[in-house]
C-alpha cells in the first residue's frame, strides 16, 4: 500500500476562527521504502499569521506574500495523495485544516481522497502511555536524528515522521521483511547441507532468574501463569 507521510504548518491553531494552511510537506513510502517522491508547497494564506505561530515555524507574512494560494496548488496536492494511506502526527489537526481548505473550494475531503488516515500520535500514546509523544520525543526514543530541526517545517517534519513511523511499526512487518529476502532454488537436485545444531543450555543463575520471573508473573496473574501450567503438564 502506498503511504504518504504528511505535515502542515498553519497561521494559528483553529481553522474555525479563520486560520489557514501555509505549508504542506509530503513524502511517499512504498513497500516500507522512501521512494524520493514528495510534494511540498508554501501557500499565501491571504491573512495575517499569528505571532505565536511564527515563533514555532518561522514563516512570516512577508515570506509568503508572493507564494501561490491554496487554489493554485490544490489539484497537484489532491493528485499526489489520492488513493493513499495518510500517516500524520496528531491527524485531527492537519485533517481539519486540509478539509477546511478543500471545502472552501468545493473539493473532496481527505476522507474521500484517501483510503485511510493513520495517527502516529495515537499509536505513540498506546505504545508509550504517560510519556511525551511529540515528534522530538519520538525521534529521541527511536534514534532518529533531528538535529537540524530548530523550527517546525512541514517537509522536514514529514521526513522525520517517516523514519519514526518505520521504527514504530518495524515489528509489525517482520513477514514483509522476510518476503524481501532472496529466494534460494534447490530444485536442481541434491540435498541442502545444514550446519550442526548448537544447543546452549541455561546456566544455574539463569534458571534461578527464570523461576523468579515466573513467580512474579504467577503472583500478578493470581496463579494463572501459562508457563507453569505447561511445565506441570510435561512428563517427568
Walk me through what this model shows.
There is one protein chain. The chain has a 5-stranded mixed beta sheet. The chain folds into 2 domains: 3-178, 2-Layer Sandwich (Nucleotidyltransferase, domain 5); 204-233, no CATH class. Strand 2 (21-30) and strand 3 form a beta hairpin. The chain has helices at residues 51-57, 61-64, 70-81, 91-104, 110-113, 120-127, 135-142, 154-168, 174-179, 204-220, 226-233, and strands spanning 3-10, 21-30, 33-42, 85-88, 116-119. With 236 residues, it is α/β, with parallel strands linked by helices. The protein is 44% helix and 15% strand. Residues 173-192 have low confidence and may be disordered. Helix 7 packs across helix 8.
